[in-house]
Amino acid sequence: MSEKTPYTTAIDSDAERSPRRIVFLTKKTSAKVVRERPRQVMSYPHLVLREVMVLQGLIIALALLALFWDAPLEQVANPLLTPNPAKAPWYFLGLQELLHYFPPIVAGIILPGLVVVALIVIPYFEINSKDEPFWSGNVQRRLLILSIVLIVLMVVLALFEAWTVIVPTAVIGGALLLGKFQAETQSSFWAYLRSRPLSWWIMTWFISVSVILTVVGTYFRGPGWSWVWPWR
Amino acid sequence: MATSSVGSLLQQLRESKVWKSVFRRGPAVTNRTRSVAVFHNLFLHFLPVKVREKSLRARATYYLGSLTFFLFLLLTVTGVLLMFYYHPAVPQAYQDMKDLRFVVSNGLFLRNLHRIGAQAMVLFVFIHMFHVFYRGGYKAPRQFNWVIGVGLLLITLFLSYTGYLLPWDQLAFWAITVGTNIISFMPSLGKIMRFLMLGGHTVGENALLRFYVLHCVVLPLAALFLIGIHFWRVQKDGGLKLREENERKDSVHNGD
């Protein structure tokens, strides 16, 4: 395209969305389209405009919240006056809830350390890259291993009386186990669950446990970390 | 005709020598100048020149990564403003909180913005990570960017945690005391690490100063460094992960 061409486009049009490949056919060869290149648009303005709109929406939402929701400020720090309960920031309350059940070295050091290591190595384990449903392949062997893992996990959790971990573990583990016997199902809910790979089940279990521990630690724990109902 | 005169004024401005010296391109009305607009700009060049139409749909990302980054920017701006009114000293820090509330114009609003933004950033980092996981965004060739993301998650948590102490009220003091006590349970290293973090055996003015420096200088710089790599790798690893994308067939790299 020559620079001299008086050539302009409107903001919502793209004169050439993406250049088309031209194939030269010589004797005794043929070409076929293996994959269509997805349609592309120019980042400027299409993406930049959207990002700016998201930024503006965010600023408006935050400003509205900041008008009506005051940051807390208690009395000046006093090392001699321990509040009961003394709570960590909300994102560490799941850990604090674990500390209530397990020895400090397990709940405070080993478990969070394992979570961080597990998150880092996720992409480097083959099992996380496969999308095959859990109930496929050697189903009997998987049923055996899953049963043993679930039973051991539940027994250990029960020994420590970690009820707020047991409940989500039982629900997610139960759903995974029940899915095996839903092979003939018509329901789309079970069909969806049955199509999920192992990595999906582990992450969903992890998120469920974390959310429940955090919510319980935030709203349901009172003096001496005893159970309280937030509406009383 | 007010609009057309504003329009012609803008037109004149765009054609002026000064404007052209800054942007070194004409108005972005052709695909060529639109490309130049992206790759001749230090900040925009983190974006690809072209994007797939499907990756622009809201449900491809829900803009979770963008929102997290914008929150980081907003927290930087509000944080710098707060620094003008804050002394990391005992008990002056607490007095500064009172002043922000009762003396400084819009001081409470400023602190609210920073506080809510910080909570939102922690929340959005988590949601972003889980969304990327369920999309399979950690799979090859994007493995390393996932690891960078985990690093950014930890920095975000630590940023929020160090900021928690700064108001120097009961909430701050005891939250940090509870948190740093957990570290001391670590065998052999625990006590030393706690001492290093607090600059003493208890949460005191040394701890306040250390948390302040970490919160305002060290951690934001570390975050910025990793954010740069994170964004750059999104492009180098082939753009956003789309649900329809089949990695095995998709051997052609995006953006060529």
What does this structure look like?
The complex is a heterodimer of chains A (232) and B (256). Chain A has helices at residues 43-68, 93-101, 104-121, 126-129, 139-159, 163-179, 188-194, 198-219; one strand at 40-42. By secondary structure, chain A is an all-alpha fold. Chain A has a domain at 90-225. The mean pLDDT of chain A is 87. Chain B has 256 residues and is an all-alpha fold. Chain B has a domain at 62-236: Up-down Bundle (Cytochrome Bc1 Complex, Chain C). Helices cover 67% and strands 1% of the residues of chain B. Chain B has helices at 2-15, 17-23, 31-39, 58-61, 64-83, 92-102, 107-135, 143-165, 170-183, 190-198, 205-236, and one strand at 50-52. Residues 246-256 of chain B have low confidence and may be disordered. The chains are: A mainly alpha (232), B mainly alpha (256). At the A-B interface, strand 1, helix 1, helix 2, helix 3 and helix 8 of A face helix 3, strand 1, helix 5, helix 6 and helix 7 of B.
Question: Which helices and strands appear, and what pairs or packs with what?
Answer:
The complex is a heterodimer of chains A (232) and B (256).
Chain A: E1 40-42, H1 43-68, H2 93-101, H3 104-121, H4 126-129, H5 139-159, H6 163-179, H7 188-194, H8 198-219
Chain B: H1 2-15, H2 17-23, H3 31-39, E1 50-52, H4 58-61, H5 64-83, H6 92-102, H7 107-135, H8 143-165, H9 170-183, H10 190-198, H11 205-236
Helix pairs in contact in B: 5-7, 6-7, 7-8, 8-9, 8-11
Mean pLDDT of chain A: 87
User: Which of globular, elongated, flat, extended, rod-shaped describes the shape of chain B?
Assistant: globular
Largest interface: chains, residues each: A-B, 73 and 86 residues
Distance between the termini of chain B: 46 Å
Strand content of chain B: under 5%
Low-confidence stretches of chain B: 246-256
Query: Which residues of chain A sit in consecutive blocks of at least 5 with pLDDT less than 50?
Result: none
Q: How are helices and strands ordered from N to C of chain A?
A: EHHHHHHHH
Number of strands of chain A: 1
Helix/strand order of chain B, N-terminal first? HHHEHHHHHHHH
Q: Taking all residues together, what is the mean pLDDT of chain B?
A: 90
| Shape designation of chain A | flat
> Whole-number radius of gyration of chain A?
28 Å
Q: Please, how many helices of chain B?
A: 11
